[in-house]
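Journal club prep — side note

Before the paper discussion, L.F. wants everyone to see what a predicted structure for a comparable chain looks like in token form. Sequence:
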Amino acid sequence: MTTLRDLGEFGLIERLTRGLPLSEDVLQGVGDDCAVVRVGDRILLISTDAAIEEVHFSRRTASPADIGWKAAAAALSDIAAMGGEARFVLVTLACPVDTEAEAVEALYGGIRQAVEACGAAIIGGDTTQSLARIVLDIVVIGEAVKGNYRLRRGARPGDVLAVTGYPGCSAAGLLALGAHVAAPPLVAAHLRPMPRLEEGRWLARRDEVHAIIDVSDGLAQDAGHVAAAGDLGLDIDPNALPIAPALEAHRDALGISPRDLAIAGGEDYELAVAIDGAAHHQVIAAFRSAFDVPITVVGQFTDAPKGIRVAGVTLTRLGFQHFRR
């Protein structure tokens, strides 16, 4: 008998969705951060994201408002990964009967804060009872502005891999919470990530940008999805990885290499981008002029060999995957 541990998250998705029928209005179905559908003369981006207590969050280390914000930010980041504009949000909330109403109000308030900060609106959802733990499911409907969007498919040999911000900070924040290390910038990166929606829209307007994905499961794993979608290899230079000063400052207290966290730590919700190798200098310079957000070239896509390599070594463990710990 095959178990979910045997399959892993991505094996399960492939098994469940194999052969799903599509229509001519589905421009992108299963296999990207959002579904892309045509409705009249508009292109909509639709995604859903679940957050389960003691899987995605713990009330021991996060306030209700923080839980709500992060759950919404994770869903909204899927729209950023496509270069879209977030428009509408639906929230399904399941709680045990003895959950304090004030805590649920604060959690919903955190969702609302994140949604409004991203220029979207909550338009409905569902509430129901769960047996033991809080469960959230957030649907986001976005739009491809003027038809501009990017898939994770599209990288070409010779493209560079660039990443916004400082990957690894969220994973460091989780470690800091567990070890009771006072590291406010890292904890904030973990509990209150900000989706890169404006940056994603800017990138999607550039012809030199061939693919985008958000960093939810770790830079190597998510950039690996981009490589796999193009049947490419990817070389990551560990010495090029941007390391946040706060992460470097707490490396001894956390007991882990900042570069390891930058490569494999998840839930940063930064953007990993495939940019034309011949034009990336201009794109990077223009991005830095437009935003007060770091962007760093950290690797290159190749036509052979396949696989994800860091300093020439092929990785077998890339990042977080449900059903495999």
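L.F.'s comment for the group: The domain at 160-314 is CATH 3.90.650.10 (Phosphoribosyl-aminoimidazole Synthetase; Chain A, domain 2). Keep this in mind when we get to the figures.
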